[in-house]
Description:
The chain is mainly alpha-helical. It has two domains: 1-88, no CATH class; 137-177. Helices cover 59% and strands 0% of the residues. The protein has helices at 3-7, 12-15, 20-38, 43-82, 85-88, 140-155, 159-174. The chain is elongated. The two termini are 40 Å apart. The model has no long low-confidence stretch (mean pLDDT 76).
Amino acid sequence: MGKLLTILGVSEEQQKKLPSDVFKAEKLIDSLQQVYAESPESIKKNQLASAISESVRILMAKVNPYLVDTQKEEKIKKEEEKLPEEDKQPKEMPKDLPKAPKGETKPPKGGTPPPPAKPEPPKPPPPEPPQPEEEEPMTCEEIKSAIKGLNLLVKMGDDEAKEIVKSLKNKLKQQNC
Length: 177
């Protein structure tokens, strides 16, 4: 299983459900981290850190749909465990109660109204896009290296990585590389 994914809180059970391209991206990020660890302190090292951070964010965005399903399943299991044994077994409906005709939502006379529907909890706001920082000009080799590293994510179908590669290619043209 993936060491980085485990550190990021993805259990081995959840990792079994992930596609193979996620593990390829994880290996790429691990390689970038090794390069970062061996690099001397500089502004370019900070840029590499930003690229690694963004790559991890993109990876987790790809993994998150697989986690949500698992989290829902776990939450349902926990809720079921809280119920008393008698509530876990299906109950038979009393036969003497009249059934409401289709389309009618009013309870029969003397009956109890249905419980109100539970409102869904508010969804968290989407994360704000990172604010552009003042960028120090990159060398042609750095731009080419970044494009090469992001191509794996592009092949995985990541639209954001595709846009970043396009902007990096424009930088190459602007710098006459």
